[in-house]
Write the structure tokens for this entry.
Amino acid sequence: MTQRTDAATAAKTAATSGPDTAGSPASAPTLDTDALLDDPDIRIVVCCGSGGVGKTTTAAALGVRAAERGRKVVVLTIDPARRLAQSMGIDSLDNIPRRVPGIEGEGAGELHAMMLDMKRTFDEIVEAHADGERARAILENPFYQSLSAGFAGTQEYMAMEKLGQLRARNEWDLIIVDTPPSRSALDFLDAPKRLGSFLDGKFIKLLMAPAKMGGRAGMKFLNVGMSMMTGTLGKLLGGQFLRDVQTFVAAMDTMFGGFRTRADATYRLLQAPGTAFLVVATPEQDALREAAYFVERLASEEMPLAGLVLNRVHGSDAARLSAEQALAAAENLEGGGIVDQTTGKAGLRDPADRSADSPQAAPAPGSVPDTTPDATPDNSEREDAEDREPTAGRAPDTPGTASVEELTAGLLRLHAERMQVVAREQRTRDRFTALHPEVAVTEVAALPGDVHDLEGLRAVGDRLATGSVPAGAA
């Protein structure tokens, strides 16, 4: 399945061919996130990806960067961990957008943030589309309370509803959405269809039939068909539960069409040219496999893909020393000597080995040994001298103290591990690029710690914009 491309999409992603990476079979276009955020025609950015890849941090960092570049931004998160609130210096987020302090820069705009309250959003829909008495009956209905709090797909559907509400208010010129942490990050695309199918299903229509049929016909239907159905379902589900469902359906009857209409409108909004999807992944096999699925799914749904954000990429400023070379050097140090050293360069070898081939180990042919008493100190004097002044490059014989050679070998092994990680990440990315060469990519170097404030989000934003991994990335 190929990714939909057109001139408008290409302009919005600002993708340009980057330099070939050593060992890479193909060069992916580079995603210019600043051009994306600066484009006034882009009104919605949706960050999607599998769990644990940094969607929330990416969404927040994009929000901070867009606001400091002059846009009025709201970030909508569905992350129950509340990391977004903490990183933005807000005590808590709720269903109302909150202004984020500390946005800096000449010509800076505004940043607001909010976290979806699924049940409150559902309540708002009921209150907005039903009169007072009916709304109260719905809100107090036990089946509604269960549905609004945890029905499968409700969270994703309410995320779509909230996005539609924010866009309809036209108060912000950029909305950034952090998608729900569900098993499939694109469940929110299916949620309107699933909820619509539930509301339009045969079971719901059957429950609604008695309320819609009046007079004797309705009573006859109720007494014959419904009595059989309710009797059977009552045994399976419980009589009180069934009555709650019927009461809920009767009260919600006039609202069902509105759910489907709004869901369809929001779905079309996601397909519009003013929307851009960013797939977020880490350079791991499972995450990029999911990313490939997202790319193909977005293409099939005709959703405009801006590109891939590759998070937590590792690099090294000593890349010229390969993993193999580092491991070989470490083994030589731990073995007590560099295997390819020549005579006269045995400074790292064991002293016993050096004495065997030292020029002073045996007298030269025809020479006379020096036998004067003070020519060579005795063994006790040599041992005392070694105790007083350790030889350069060797640590004293103190228990628990590593020699310079041992420390160096350990560092070489750490470097070898890092280079192996770098090579594995590059191979994984190359496989994704080979499958989807049209997808623009930006890489975000791994940070040494968690992001917990605006400065950390700015650092992520800078790395998103540069689109490359610094040589000394952590």
About this structure: Residues 404-435 form the longest helix (32 residues).
